[in-house]
Amino acid sequence: MARPRLSDTEKKGERLTVRFRPGELNELSEQADMSGLSVSELIRRRAMQMRVVSVTDLKMLSELRRIGGLMKHLFNETNGLYRQKTAELLSELHAAVVRVGRKREDE
Predict the structure, then answer these.
(1) First to last CA, the chain
(2) Is residue 48 located within the same domain as residue 59?
(3) How many alpha carbons fall within 13 Å on the CB side of residue 14?
(4) Is this structure's pTM higher than 0.70?
(5) Are residue 99 and residue 63 in the same domain, yes or no?
(6) For 19-28, what is each residue's pLDDT tens digit?
(7) DSSP state, 5?
(8) CA dihedral over 77, 82, 88, 92, signed as positive or negative
């Protein structure tokens, strides 16, 4: 979720110093990298209970949607020849999208 650009008067000005145990900052750095955020932005979003989305999850959702589109195309091109199998696969695909979406909301 892209955040709007802030004007100079809206930029963050308050600073908070936080200490971490050994290894915690490395873990936060890895999580920030996976989300495409700075460590500060990751901590800010978590503290404000905002959603943090993994870049990997976004790519996976995009790929699952692409596969769904290809399955729909195949269904249309074969005039529904594999109707039952297509329905089963689309159901599994939908369940995978829901799982990834739920995982994103839990983070």
Answers:
(1) 14
(2) no
(3) 2
(4) no
(5) yes
(6) 999 899 999 9
(7) P
(8) negative
Residue with tokens 């999208």: 97
41 and 60 inside one domain: no
Q: Classify burial at 93, counting beta carbons within 10 Å of its beta carbon; exposed 0-12, middle 13-18, buried 19 or more.
A: middle
CA distance 39 to 29: 6
76 and 101, same structural domain?
A: yes
pLDDT in tens, 52-85: 777 777 788 888 889 888 888 888 888 888 888 8
Three-state secondary-structure class, residue 64: helix
Rounded Cα–Cα distance for residues 35 and 98 (Å)? 19
Q: How far apart are CA 87 and CA 64, in angstroms?
A: 15
